[in-house]
Amino acid sequence: MSGADDKRVTTGNKQMDEILKGGFPISSINIIMGEPGTGKTVFAEQLVFHHASEPGRPIIYLTTLSEPIAKVLTYMQRFTFFDEDKIGSALHYRDIGFNLAKDGVGVLLPFLKDAIHEVAPKIIVIDSFKALHDVSESPQELRRVLFEITGMLTAYKTTVFLIGEYSTEHVRSLPEFGMADGIVQFLRSPESTRDERFVRVLKLRGSSYLEGLHGCRITSSGLSIFPRFISPEIPESYTRKRGTIKSGIKGFDEIFGNGLVEGSATLLAGPTGSGKTTFGLQFVLEGVRQKQRSLFVNFQENPTQLADAIAALDNKLTEKERANLFFLYESPVEMQIDSIIVKIFQMIEEKKINRVVIDAMGDLELASKDPERVHNFIYSLTQHLTVNNVTSVILHETAASVLGSTTNIGGRVSNMSDNIVLLSVPTEPDYQRTLLCIKARGCAHDLKPHKFEMTEKGIVVH
What we know:
It is built from 15 helices and 22 strands. The chain is of the alpha/beta class.
């Protein structure tokens, strides 16, 4: 980075730094806001312990009228980032709750002056800053104190974080938001069986940042944050391989001429028992036989169940080929769409995946009550796969046989797909399974329905 103005204060969280384009600007005043239990204090503590482990000026963590220091430290000890050896040397905790309750908000300024002269901190955290409104005689008094604090802290090149139980309405009405250089909001959205947590940046003066809601989760190591997945910046022209790949399903590739186009996205739809998961497993197993690194993402069958299904299909794989087969399992009960989409793409990038199967689209839709959010995530993912020439198959379960009805299959995901293939379960009068390709972008595909069988070795298309 060039120049002092470009220096950043990292958060101790790689993903949050990605959202903030490197971190908070140095010598800035930032508000960390959110209702109780959203993760504000965990975020602040993770940040200060990260910086306490680095050489340089110390840090002051100031508690006001919220929780006493002893209680804060008791709960922080449960996290892996907590380091007792840093307290009192690199990290100084101070409690001025009693002084504020007794003498009012005016005691804050001289207290900060003494602390700065004593330890010259590089970071100051005040938790909770909103509580100062309860001991202020008037909004004018608090505004005057804020003005004096801002000038003093800026002069000493100290980066400040003000923690508070603020709501969105407070952003427009309270004076501290006018002077803040950065505003980060933590939110919690109740679901039917669990809560979803999000974080978003409302303001970062003089800097760009990744807008929107980003999923987050409180874990034993602190906050796990999942930046909102966005579409790649596609250049005006990029090289896309136009070769074809083998599916591993006997008789299927002929429907497309000579196999699926490399880098294409296929939506495979059908009711329960139509063979979608078997198709997906055959597809990834054929990939490793063709020396392609393949990923199977699954939300239903646990690893043991999948292992049993694979055992009947991969008896010809060598150990070297098996090493190129990867799995990602996530329970649909606790799944958060932000985290799973980020995990999928990270795994694709780290393992240099060539083909991927996602089983199934419906589980991703259930993971979020916002259909628009699901659509945006899937669109961004398919665009990333296309640009990186990754061939994908997305499985989608329909309520019943869909042959003969080609509308609303897979919702808007069907519009993103290069190919759409429909499977049916045995029906009268001949009780035969049927496969039909209704869309194949960029190739002259077979329009006729084809009977197929589920054999011990997988699907065979006639």
